Amino acid sequence: MKLTGLSVSMQGEAILQDVAFHLHCGEIVALIGPNGAGKSTLFRSILGQLPYKGTITFSPAGGPAIRLSDGSATGGKRPLVGYVPQAPSFDRGDPVSVLDFFVAATAKWPVWLPIPRKYREQAAASLARVHGEELLDRPMGGLSGGQLQRVLLALALEPVPHILILDEPLSGVDIEGEHQLLEMLDELRTQYDLSIFLSTHDFATLDQYADKVILLDRKVLKMGSPDEVLSSPEFYQTFHLRMGKGGEHQ
Ligand SMILES: Nc1ncnc2c1ncn2[C@@H]1O[C@H](COP(=O)(O)OP(=O)(O)OP(=O)(O)O)[C@@H](O)[C@H]1O
């Protein structure tokens, strides 16, 4: 995927200005920036949910270059983009099971009717992709942050897209859940040559999984390896940290 000169305005205010970068096949790119930087707006533009200026070009492996303008284009048999939204909160006592949720989302089957065996098998197979078979009959409200992310991830992989976008997948996930999720993303990108583009406020783990980091605050302020971005003056200025002469923060 290649973005050039991407700009978005809302109600006369420039939300994104001249954003440009490449996302290569099988690459994991992390998007960081302060609150209100435009991270979700960038995702919504890529998903074709917002009007924008500039170009977003998709060149799925083995397929023709496809320009997405309304979010409906597909790259061959696989959809271009899958999306894992910020995790919704479920009431602890909510009786809706993972199976109910999955089938309602994928097959549009109403939750109050008995679920046919074929839908149960399909949901189990989808959850198996994220090693979550055992979650099938659990209530959504009883899942941990990491388990909920895995269910949402399984949904976004049905069917497996070329590019997977995740909006703050690590928020509300404990350290062990975060480790599992990152391992799973790494496994999925290798298995499906999936490009992964995610936003996060967790900078400590970036160097464990991200090939590239983009620091955004309405514009791209810095782009590079986790080390390059996290040690840059732009990073320190954006997050109001003070930097010593040698580049070390004080
Ligand atoms: N529908 C809208 N109309 C007007 N302004 C909007 C709209 N949606 C978002 N904005 C503004 O766009 C800016 C960027 O918002 P966005 O949600 O993309 O930021 P973000 O980086 O995802 O923030 P966060 O880290 O808090 O989730 C904010 O100033 C927000 O107020």
UniProtKB/TrEMBL annotation:
SUPFAM superfamilies to which the protein is assigned, alphabetical: P-loop containing nucleoside triphosphate hydrolases (SSF52540)
Domain of life, source organism: Bacteria
UniProt xrefs under InterPro entries: AAA+_ATPase (IPR003593), ABC_transporter-like_ATP-bd (IPR003439), ABC_transporter-like_CS (IPR017871), Metal_Ion_Import_ABC (IPR050153), P-loop_NTPase (IPR027417)
Keywords tagged on the record: ATP-binding, Nucleotide-binding, Transport
Keyword Isomerase: no
Protein name: Metal ABC transporter ATP-binding protein
GO MF annotation terms: ATP binding; ATP hydrolysis activity
Residues covered by the ABC transporter domain: 1-242
Family matches, as SMART domains: AAA
One Pfam assignment: ABC_tran
